[in-house]
PASTA domain-containing protein
Amino acid sequence: MRRMCAVLSLALVALAGCVDGKPGPPGTTAPTGGAPASATMPPVSFPGTSAKAAAVPNVVGMNHQKAQDAMQAAGFYFLTEEDATGRGRLLINDSNWVVVEQVPAAGTVIPQSDKILLRSKKKSE
């Protein structure tokens, strides 16, 4: 036990000796105060999207993977998905699922940067 305490004490002293209070080379110091990094990050943009609006395509009844492809072809890249049965399953293999509902509804004109929810269930259900 004494030996472990001695080793830990030496390690602590060695680490404490590494800090001299002087700043390191430029670009190696941690930021202090100010805005968090996320507040200074530029907004995320998806390829082919802009602030322009477009009509949401009708993908209800389509294979989930093909529905995602159709949404992206129409310029909608902010897609979310969920199990329409309410069982909370993850849609691992998109081609095994069929879209049963979409939000917003087909034909709704929205900015292409808006989120679209695809609710799907397995083909066998």
Remarks:
- The beta strands are 53-55, 79-83, 97-103, 109-111, 116-122.
- The longest strand covers residues 97-103.
